[in-house]
Input
Amino acid sequence: MKIEIDQSAGFCFGVKNAIEKAENELLQGNQVYCLGEMVHNMEEMNRLNKLGLITINHDEFEKLSNVSVLIRAHGEPPQTYEYANKAHIHLIEATCPVVIRLQKKIRDTNTENNEAQIVIAGKPDHPEVKGLAGNVNKEVVVVNDPSELDKIDFQKPVNLFVQTTLHPEKLKEIKSNMIRRFRESGYDPSNLVVKNRICGQVANRIPSLKTFCRKHDLIIFVSGKNSSNGKSLFAVCQSINPNSHFLSNEAELQAGWFKHINSVGISGATSTPGWLLEQIAQKIKEHI
Ligand code: SF4
Output
């Protein structure tokens, strides 16, 4: 049985950079707190915790002072920086450069002082979306599905921002429905301005993942269960190869999946570590 690991799977550069920054500090013996889960992958989190990384939530953060706290790739709203400044917290800045550019763009749009509404296409509880919305001092509408468009006033212009990991098909669906709603309300759809794009690391993964899924009889897709990028990439696998299985670690492998299979492709989300994909490939070689 042939086993291939998808070369385009694994951490995106934003997550790699954040993990490297944490490791550098920890290896020097410094105590490091991380505000929120560094990466939505329990196996990688266990590895980092063993190195000494302490994950905290916002309530815990606001009780700390005089410590080092890492800001992960998703970024944070300005309020986090204000508190850190007051509490003499040293911030290790690991916000992804793509997210930093996006935060700047939304701040600039906010200060343009026009009547346009700011809409974010993404998940309201996603840290990147919360960080973006925190950069705006007027109402921000967050929509994650075309069924939520009633929150928008289609008699006013819209500046649409997009969560970097949103599925491109979902964005297409939201945009086309917004254009339809503008037309229905008699307002010019050119008043919809899309201010940013889905991250290239995410968008480019989809075509290469589709090609990879076509090459194999069986796809093993490895991701944390709470990774939104993992869920949307797995949906891509299933759409191309219905014989696809989602798992988080090697213990979830089932011998029955591999009967009458000649080739297995192993892929993962942007939050899945390369070492985990290797470990799963090894386990399949040895035990299945
Ligand atoms: S998915 Fe893209 S924007 Fe998000 S952290 Fe990774 S590289 Fe940065």
